[in-house]
Amino acid sequence: MTDDVRPPVLQAQGITKVFGGVRALSGVDFALGEGEAHALVGENGAGKSTLIKVLTGVHRPDEGQVLLGGEPRSFGRPLDAQQAGISTIYQEVNLIPLMSAAQNVYLGREPRTSFGLVDTRAMERDARELLDSYGIDVDVRRPLRTLGLGAQQMVALARAVSIDARVVIMDEPTSSLEPREVRTLFEVIARLREQGIAIVYVSHRMDELYEVCEKVTVLRDGRLVHTGDLADLPRLELVAMMLGRTTSEMSGSGVTEFGEEAHTQAAEPVLVAEHLTRKHEIEDVALSVRPGEVLGLGGLLGAGRSETLKAVAGAMPLDRGQVSLDGKRVRSGSVPAAIRAGVVLLPEDRKAEGIIPNLSVRENIVLAALPRLSRFGFTSRRKQDAVVRTMMERLHIKASSPEQPVAELSGGNQQKVMIARWLAMSPRVLLLDEPTRGIDVGAKAEVQALIDELAREGLGIVLVSSELEEVIEGADRMVVLKDGAVVAELNGEEITEERLMAALSTETALPADPGAPPEEASRG
Amino acid sequence: MAEATVTSAPTRSTSVSGWLRVYGVYAALVVVLVINLLFTDNFFAVDNFRIQLVQVVPVLVVALGMALVIGTEGIDLSVGAVMALAAAVIPLWLGYGVVPAVLVALVAGLVVGLVNGGVIAFIGVQPIVATLALMVGGRGIALVISGEQLKSIQNQDLRSLGTAEVAGIPLIVVIAAVLAVLVWLLVSSTTYGRQLVAVGGNRRAAELSGLPVKRVLITAYVLCALLASIAGVIGVARAGASVPSTLGNLIELSAITAVVVGGTPLSGGQVRVWGTVAGALLLQLIDATLIKHDVPDSYSQIVQAVIIVIAVFVQRGKGVRS
Questions:
Q1: Closest residue of B to A412, CA-based?
Q2: Smallest CA–CA separation between B305 and chain A, in Å?
Q3: Measured between alpha carbons, how far is B314 from A234 in angstroms, rounded to an integer?
Q4: Which membrane topology term applies here (chain A) (predicted)?
Q5: What is the CATH number of the domain that holds A276?
Q6: Does one domain contain both A288 and A301?
């Protein structure tokens, strides 16, 4: 497809995959040259994981074919792909934690003694040599789980390449690695490439992509957006492609239900969060919200937006950092403490973290407020009904009755029930994680209008949304996150797609060179 | 762009299988009664019903607590051991009177419940494993306390607890009925009861809604153990002896069966108190029917197994993924 002289070792042609009527991939082409490091990027739902699963035989494509070394191949199951030389390293290491590193490397193909027993000595010697050859220094006799996550991943990698791999697919390989381990990984990747092994590298970390990869393929909504040399591609353009924009064309306003004018805000912030830090998730994030303000959190997938909201809501333990409301410190890591202070979170995954499916609409609405709608520990149906009626009218919740099981409602109405649950607590600050995901257009407009209205009534709102228009038009101010840290803050008129993308594509410092810097070494 | 969810007409699972899940146990109860009316001599006699009710009390009281625990998506295998512990401590304290002896038996239950609940809520051990430890260890402790001796109870106050009647109804049946009403009130109209059901329905959501999830879990196991120790006291009073080696043997299985047959799903999020009561009665009546027709005990176990399979099969319809 491009001016590629090397024959592609792995190729996908016109891959289409449909899941229950939803096209996860439509006619996607992908070509991987020998010894090439190829970045595969895209936002949520772009089809990256589906493509990987097609390449590794987990899914069968509905249309199109996979070619390995020029030959069309159809992998019935993942093991076939592995035996054909395609290995995958997942984020979560899928090895056996109680076995030694050496046993894991040679699992299922252990060297034997002349009596047919496992030759442990030979196995350990071979494993040590193999790991040494990649510059990985681990004790191969130790159980895998006693090794660091990075070392575990290296063992997985060693296992993969020792099974005669021609292609290694790495899915977010650095997400839980220390900077020093990241360096080792990059060195291993370089050695693999020297041996002609091709790498598919999936990551959200822009800087890593530019350091490791020579080619890039961008997917969006199941379609191929771009493929080519990475070095030629300006970062801004890459970000724009991932978000489905071109740098020249920017959409006008008025797509959402958010009002045009900024909300009138008090001067003093209601909520201040400082130094929010949790290893591998977020690093020294700070934000503040004033009453009547909608603060948007910008960033790509994996930038730490949801984690930041969880940290503020007490739903994620913190290594460091504090949240205060009206100047008063809120006990960190405690959801009840945050709720008492008036900080509430609408979680991203409504089904898993929001609704109680077997309970009625009424019981879901009053869930958090139950103690205050009770007398001497007995629930008061009268008090509940008053709250539920008000909420259902105000939020236009469509249900046959308050007693209908919440699981039977549409996504939009379930989301309104979740919002009602929190409004019943009269919160000061509302943290909204993807409030309009997976709900129909009408409900989406209603939810957006409601956010606007709540802000006008003086609530502080923090908004996370993967839909650009929503954050850009909804937010009065925006904090931009990248790799778990704040990289920019945009105010009022500055909140535009150009500024956001510029902030997202700035270069940040890569992990330092080997021989870790002092502050890393001292980290406990 | 996220996919648009069109409001579809809710397809209620409350078709035949839904109806069976909720009311099946009552229907089965009626069927068993009718069969006995037709084929069993002297079944419909006041004395017979009195015997059946008296016999069902221990399982029923234990099942009430089990229903609470199962409602949290848990299970408690240690209930039989708790009964044994209660039985073991009673003779030691009976010298101080019935009230102290019963109180100590309840304290034994309280301690077991706290240990179970604490291990499950704070350490995160799976309920089946945590309570298995005390199922084995608790009975061991009971045997150590009792010196593996059967102790006859001479105290008339305690013995009369097993034989007394209130308005012609055995006292222990009245106690069981009162406990059932209390548990029903707890589940249906207290803050705690609704929180328990919410924790069982979606624990993560309950946590994120600020519910005191750990406290709810611990309380459920404490209540379950307390009810089991009451069953233990009743067992001792009825037998007129403390026999920790056999009291409450395998009662956890009967209790779980009663709860499941009564329509409470093992996946938590619901507690059917009256279904549990009916489930316990159903098991008791089936047992009695088979005995009256001289069917060997081994067959009645097979029948129990079939009932469990049917109950689980009926429940399986829930939670179909679209």
A1: B5
A2: 28
A3: 60
A4: Peripheral membrane protein
A5: 3.40.50.300
A6: yes
Distance CA B129, CA B177 (A): 31
Are A298 and A434 contained in the same domain? yes
**B209 has a chain A CB within 8 A of its CB:** yes
Domain-embedded: residue A11: no
Q: Which residues of A touch B211 (CB under 8 A)?
A: 367-368
Nearest residue of A to residue B210, measured between CA atoms = A336
B10: chain A residues, CB-CB within 8 Å: 400, 404, 408-409
What is the predicted pLDDT for the residue at B15? 63
Last residue of a domain, one of A394, A426, A458: A426
Mutation target vs A (from B11, B190, B203, B208; most A CBs, 10 A cutoff): B208
> Is A518 a residue whose pLDDT tops 80?
no
Q: Which of A243-257, A303-317, B213-227, B284-298 is predicted least confidently?
A: A243-257
Measured in angstroms, the CA of B283 and the nearest CA of chain A are apart by 27
Nearest beta carbon to residue A345 from set B6, B208, B211: B208
Question: A306 with A441, same domain?
Answer: yes
Chain B contact for A72 (CB, 8 A cutoff)? no
Taken in order B189, B194, B200, B202, the sign of the CA dihedral is positive
How far is A341 from A328, CA to CA, in rounded Å?
Answer: 9
Most B CBs within 10 A among A335, A363, A401, A416, hence the mutation to make, goes to A335
**pLDDT higher than 80, residue A39:** yes
Which domain range does residue A291 map to? 266-342+428-504
Neighbouring CB atoms inside 10 A of B8's CB total 9
State ipTM.
0.85
Compute the distance between CA of residue A452 and CA of residue A461 in angstroms, rounded to an integer: 9
Quick one: pLDDT at residue B321? 35
Q: Is residue A437 part of a domain?
A: yes
Q: Same domain for A438 and A499?
A: yes
Minimal-distance CA residue of chain A relative to B322? A20
Give the CATH class of B56-315. mainly alpha
pLDDT above 70: residue B11: no
Alpha carbon separation from A46 to A51, A219, B218 (Å, rounded): 10, 5, 44
Please report the residues numbered 189 through 248 in chain A whose beta carbons come closer than 8 angstroms to any beta carbon of chain B.
221
Is residue A415 in some structural domain? yes
Q: Which of A379, A421, A441 is facing B209, going by the closest CB pair?
A: A421
Q: What is the pTM of this model?
A: 0.76
| Predicted pLDDT at A521 | 38
> Is residue A436 located within the same domain as residue A394?
no
- The string of pLDDT tens digits covering residues B142-184 is 999 998 888 898 888 899 998 898 888 999 999 999 999 999 9
Q: What is the pLDDT of residues A57-112, one digit of tens each?
A: 888 899 999 998 888 888 878 778 888 888 888 766 678 888 898 988 888 778 88
With 0-12 / 13-18 / 19 or more C-beta atoms within 10 angstroms meaning exposed / middle / buried, residue B292 is middle
Strand order in the sheet with A223-229: A86-89, A167-171, A198-202, A37-41, A215-220, A223-229
Q: Shortest CB distance from B3 goes to which of A315, A358, A438?
A: A438
Final residue of a structural domain among A426, A454, A479 = A426
Within 10 angstroms of residue B266's Cβ, the number of other Cβ atoms is 13
Are the Cβ atoms of B202 and A355 closer than 8 angstroms?
Answer: yes
Beta carbons of B2 and A356 less than 8 Å apart: no
Q: Does A350 touch chain B (CB under 8 A)?
A: no
Per-residue pLDDT, B77: 96
User: CB burial class (10 A; 0-12, 13-18, 19+) of residue B42?
Assistant: exposed
One domain, residues A421 and A434: no
- Does some domain include residue A221? no
